[in-house]
Design goal:
Strand content: over 45%
Strand order of the largest sheet: 1-3-4-7-8-9-10-11
Structural class: mainly beta
Number of strands: 12
Mean pLDDT: 82
Largest sheet: 8 strands, antiparallel, barrel
Helix content: under 10%
Number of helices: 1
Length: about 220
């Protein structure tokens, strides 16, 4: 419930910026932009584990903050090529039913993402769309062990808006979704694996400050 509420809040925040930016003048045209950002991470899916080995137990990444940066090269006034990365302090949490009460414990962990994407910025608006692919990598005590697959390939889609606070200062507000298959201990060949393959859906809400270079 908490993740669902947080995602609704993220989309509401973006919608408010969009509502004010649909008819706003286009921002200054730069050849390249560097955008450091703060982000919030909201996992929508559980990490699937074996129900026989862990009956009544669920595993899910925690909602968490993070930091990152994007580097964008504008091929034209409306199309850009972008590289982005983020570091998120999200630990996997186990939740179980014990005598009718919820028991919760987590193991230290982090998530690192790296993506390449195409950005579409329609003319005469402050809105943008993006799509691409990259990797999601997990680290920390939670994922230590021989044979643990820590990195997965992912697809990414997103949308955002630029809020022009002053003529020389702006904020980029972006909502992204990363989608990928995850199975940390690999294919289940003998029925004894703890993890099972499952689709993961991760949402992030980022607020960044763009710095432009080389006016057109």
């Amino acid at each position: 419930m908490r993740s669902e509420w947080s995602v609704r809040t993220a989309f509401t925040a973006l919608a408010l910026v969009v509502a004010g930016g649909v008819t706003a003048p286009a921002h200054a045209q730069y050849v390249a932009e560097f955008t450091p950002f703060f982000t919030s991470y909201y996992p929508l899916s559980n990490i699937k584990i074996d129900a026989v080995q862990a009956p009544g137990v669920t595993l899910k990444q925690s909602t968490a903050p993070g930091v990152g940066a994007r580097l964008t090269f504008w091929v034209s006034g409306t199309i850009g090529i972008e590289a982005a990365g983020s570091y998120i302090w999200s630990s996997p949490a186990f939740k179980a039913e014990e005598q009718g009460a919820n028991a919760l414990f987590s193991l230290p962990g982090t998530i690192i993402t790296g993506t390449g994407r195409i950005v579409l910025r329609p003319a005469r608006t402050n809105l943008y769309l993006l799509a691409g692919g990259g990797i999601v990598s997990r680290a920390g005590d939670a994922w230590e062990g021989d044979g643990v697959k820590k990195t997965n390939f992912a697809g990414v889609v997103g949308a955002g808006a630029r809020a022009n606070v002053t003529p020389k200062f702006a904020l980029n507000i972006t909502v992204e979704g990363m989608f990928y298959s995850m199975d940390p201990d690999g294919p289940d060949s003998d029925g004894g694996d703890f993890f099972k393959s499952a689709l993961q859906s991760d949402i992030t809400l980022a607020v960044g400050i763009p710095f432009g270079f080389g006016r057109r």
